[in-house]
Amino acid sequence: MSDKNHKSNQSNDNKGTSGTNQAYQKALDNRSNQLNPNNSQYQRKK
Questions:
Q1: Fewest CB atoms less than 10 Å from the CB: which of 5, 28, 35, 40?
Q2: Do residues 21 and 14 lie in contact, with contact meaning Cβ atoms separated by under 8 Å?
Q3: Predicted structure pTM score
Q4: Cα(first)–Cα(last) distance of the chain, in Å?
Q5: In Å, how far are 2, 4, 18, 22, 24 from 36, measured between CA atoms?
């Protein structure tokens, strides 16, 4: 998979389908992890 394709997949939520692609789901999981105050690496906005 090319980097260009991966970047596109990260922003593609696959509307109208029953699921999400792997790159999009990992990006969502990473974002929610970063925003979770219970995460040990959480750094609130300064």
A1: 40
A2: yes
A3: 0.62
A4: 37
A5: 30, 29, 26, 21, 18
